Amino acid sequence: MSLVATLSTGDHIVGLARQHVGEPYILGARAPMANPNWKGPWDCAEFASWCVYQASGVLFGVEPRTHPMRADAYTGYWTEQAQACGALIPLEQAVRIAGAMLLRVPRPRGTGHIAISDGLGGTVEAHSAKLGVIEGKASGRRWDYGVLLPGVACFA
Fold this sequence. Notes:
Number of helices: 5
Largest sheet: 6 strands, antiparallel
Number of strands: 8
Mean pLDDT: 92
Oligomer: single chain
Radius of gyration: 14 Å
């Protein structure tokens, strides 16, 4: 784990994500994880993984997991990696923790979704082609898991 990762906070991830509100969304868009100046287009998993990498130096929810120039994010990878490292938390906790993730697992013939919790019941997320990157609400939507990232200090 890098020194940067141990000093990163969930508030830092949320603050970084908020700087991109209004940018475009394209399902399947690739975000270069190593480019700190990327302004989109985004899809939800690329946005979440890029924000985490830029704030902490940790590649999460991507394959390959060790190469930021080739990393491709996907909600299925978020699910697999979070389960493998014991990073799943109850949704009730995740919505109260800035920088926790809210994850909807992809279903057969469907897509998943991921959003960054602002800790106050809101989200920052690459939402849709119509809305782009937004600040939204966590309630009233289907989420399967909360994810608390290893190496990132998050506080309720």
